[in-house]
Amino acid sequence: MYGRFRTWGPGLLVLLPTIGLLGYFVYGLIGATLNTSLTAQHAARRGSYPYVGFENYANLFAEERFLNSLKNLGVLTVAFIVGTLIFGLLWALLLEKGVPGESIFRSVYLFPMAISMIASGVVWGWLMNPSTGDDARGINRLFHLLHLGFLENSWWSGTSRWTNMLAIALPAIWQLSGYIMALFLAGFRGIPPELREAARVDGASEFKLYRHVLFPQLSPIALSALIILGHMSLKLFDLIYAIAGPSQFRTEVPSVYMWNTLLRSDMAKAAAIAIVLLAVVAVLVIPYVAYTVRQESAER
Amino acid sequence: MRGLVVKAISVAGVASLALTACGGNDDSSSGSGGDNKVQVFTWWADGGEKAGLDGLVSQFQKDCSQYSFENAAVAGGAGANAKQVLANNLSAGDPPSTFQAHAGKELQDYITNGQVDDISGLYKEFGLDQAFPQSLLDNLTVDGKIYSVPANVHRANVVWANPAVLKRASIDGTKAPASVDAWIADLTKLKAAGVAAPLAVSKGFAQEMLMETTLLAELGPDKFTGLFNGQTDPAGGDVTAALSKYRTLLTFTNADREAIDWPDALGYVNSGKAGYTLMGDWVAAQQVADKVPDSAYTYWPAPGTDGEFQFLADSFTLPTNGKAAEGTKCWLRVVGSAEGQKAFNTTKGSIPARSDASPADYPKYQQAAMADWKQDKIVPSCAHGSACTLGQNESIQSAISQFSGSPDVAKLQSALATALKSS
């Protein structure tokens, strides 16, 4: 008995505080949120409220505003992931080819990540001023001075969901591309030089070398990048709030909508939005976790 | 080397300052001797608002010398940040001694949540039921009870114009157009005279104010007030017609309306880029602060709302289970008193809620506003909380921002009806 405890006991003791804290502050509170979302607590006052089943969810999905926020989120996520992966990979490729002053470029591309989203959101809000022509300000002003008037646009305050959310994704892409570059660069560096030499000896062209030898080795990194970017995009709040402010229909995503709902003391509805958001994140993350667990046990 | 030492010492000094500052905060919230400390929560952190608060505080220290004032201001225009902090503190059961809120319907959430106390008794005790005009008292009363003491009154339905710009289309800037239609005609003339966006408007509540005053002008004061108490059908044809006019007005506004704030819109008028902007009368204080000469701008009630005073009032509450309740009552007495209202309003640029104030104490704009306050019909404002709850207001602002992108009158009207039915 004692012998068996010695094998798993110390580990359990070390983990116990973490399990306790996570259990309460993460899973316990998810449970509490789920519970609230099933009640009619449409006020901040505490007390007992009747259970209404999935009524809050049904109401949400019948609401134009919520569906709009989900669609906005979809466009934002696609634009953000594709943009960040393209720029990250591009920069990693350029640096991997060995430019002079590589460390300077690496820092330059990474720096935006050091700025908090709320701060960069405020500045990007100024840069993306929708005035055009002689009144143009921010980036539009730059276009105007360069006689590139056709590029001036209304950024996030236009009429199309695609251009609006693309404008919101732009600062996010700017901030995170450096991080993805660092991930890919580490991946490139991790590939043993023998593989490249072998491919070259076999007469592979540079394109074929990347296409068939190097990129396949990067796929685990690409997958992690996809998951990291995906869940960041789904939770994105501060950037949008700083650029467009609250209650802005055009750029509203579920996280901002949840905040607005919470502020008007509609606890049950806010909880329902939170659970929907959690479900969307779970759809993305759970397959990834399952995949890595299987991968790791296969390696063992 | 010496530089380094000096640097190190100064850093240590700043750090210890920060530490003592934190310590000070902890002390006050743990409430050691906190019974005498009246913690006043506002969003008046700078400018004329801060000066007004300071005026109130010095009066408080004179009249309630046994209590001390503790400033709990959270900066941010129209209380955007403050309301969030307040909501957190209230739901955590840690209310301040008193907090600022717009008088009227906006208090509804706090009332429903049982977070503020009925202070009708204090009104009698302080004689406020005699000092405030009856129409204001009617607007403050919820189910026969009053929950806050207004410190001031602002007017929302004011248009600020640049007469030099209007001259380009030979329009007399001193006279208000008689109706919304006449205003649209003037705007059309201005556009033809080369002013691309003659009506400057900014994001969020400014657009809501423009919509509100259009509704007020087209429906008249009684039907307009009825929108918010269920007497008027928001789905009616007259509302549709008014909203269509609002859509027309929007076509004369600046393209960057979603990205700018009201001082920017006012700047467009002052710089001659636009002819008009509609904004509450806190603009008067801003113009004085910006040293814009009196001759450079004119103001009148929004077209079609002459003789109607769309009011909003900042008021103070008595939170349930707040700290230092006796001191808070003394604060509320000062807020409602003639001296307190004078100390506050002469610097903030608003007018006193009491009807016994002497206009001679106030600057030019306020004198005119005080005269109107006495004789005009008083109507509430949704954008500033006297007619709508926080929730209704939020829904309407979302609908307005949607409308600004794709102006669909039917959609706006149904969103308006849904919002007004909700709480």
Written account of the structure:
- The complex is a heterodimer of chains A (300) and B (423).
- Chain A has 300 residues and is mostly helical.
- Chain A has one domain (21-299): MetI-like (MetI-like fold), CATH 1.10.3720.
- Helix content of chain A is 74%, strand content 0%.
- Chain A has helices spanning 2-37, 55-61, 64-96, 102-110, 117-127, 138-145, 161-190, 193-201, 206-235, 238-244, 254-263, 267-299.
- The two termini of chain A are 28 Å apart.
- The model of chain A has no long low-confidence stretch (mean pLDDT 88).
- In chain B, the strands form 3 sheets. In chain B, strands 2-1-3-11-4 form a 5-stranded mixed β-sheet, with helices on one face.
- Helices cover 51% and strands 10% of the residues of chain B.
- In chain B, helix 2 links the parallel strand 1 (37-41) and strand 2.
- With 423 residues, chain B is α/β, with parallel strands linked by helices.
- Residues 1-33 of chain B have low confidence and may be disordered.
- Chain B starts with a helix and ends with a helix.
- Classes of the chains: A mainly alpha (300), B alpha/beta (423).
- Chain A binds chain B through residues 42-45, 65, 125, 128-132, 135, 137, 154, 157-159, 244-250, 252, 260, 263-266, and chain B through 80, 83-84, 87, 90-91, 109, 112-115, 203-204, 254-256, 258-259, 273, 389-391, 394, 397-399, 401-402, 405-406, 423.
- Chain A: The chain crosses the membrane at residues 12-30, 73-95, 107-127, 165-188, 209-229, 270-291.
